Hints:
The protein is an alpha/beta fold. It contains seven helices and eleven strands.
Amino acid sequence: MHILVTNDDGVQAPGLLALATAMRRVGRVTILAPDRNWSASGHVKTMHRPLRVRRETLADGSDAQTCDGAPSDCVAVALLGLVADVDLVVSGINPFANLGHDVTYSGTVTAAMEAVIHGLPGVAVSLDGSRLQQDYEPAANVAVNVVQSLIRHRLSPGTLLSVNVPGLPAREIRGVRITRQGQRLYRDELIQRDDPRGRPYYWIGGERPTGVPAEGTDFGALADGYVSVTPLQLDLTAYKQGQDMANWGWT
């Protein structure tokens, strides 16, 4: 089993090192990750400039490669020929949860989506942590269990897994729930400032988003102290809506 490990926080992020170390218990690991933070970058394909890849040494002395593109670029470059014989892509460990509609923004999740586009299974691993408490070991151990289960049972084509781990000590995590996407409540606001020449510029700011902890959702699982494993697919077709639209009397 050859596992490509990437992330969206940058090649030197501690979550990446924790994930890569854990994945070595499952198979051979190659690391190719962005050279900077790409959080909330979404699914990017860089085509307007060349991409550059260079060698990097991680904090434990292990070898990695880093790319000046987005997380999805890293996966694409690897699977298009830079890295041979990859069986699985695992992305993370993100220091904050990716829940509900976050999956469309998340570089962590869209790196796993890129794997699916190339015909490989992808797993995105996120920790529901805080800036003051980020112990990646429990999430890394969960990632091992998820990947081992995936290898035994296999995912349907076109499917990836978004894994969110409670920010709790391992002994307090109650288990695993298979979930659906919940409802994320964003509280964004537009902040306007003027530069020294009086020209306006803008930040998208606001309070940290929350969510509705409904039963069966990713939010609900984390709120109850469980790992959330949400199977996602790239087919975004609203089939029921399409059936309804077929009766709209098109001419």
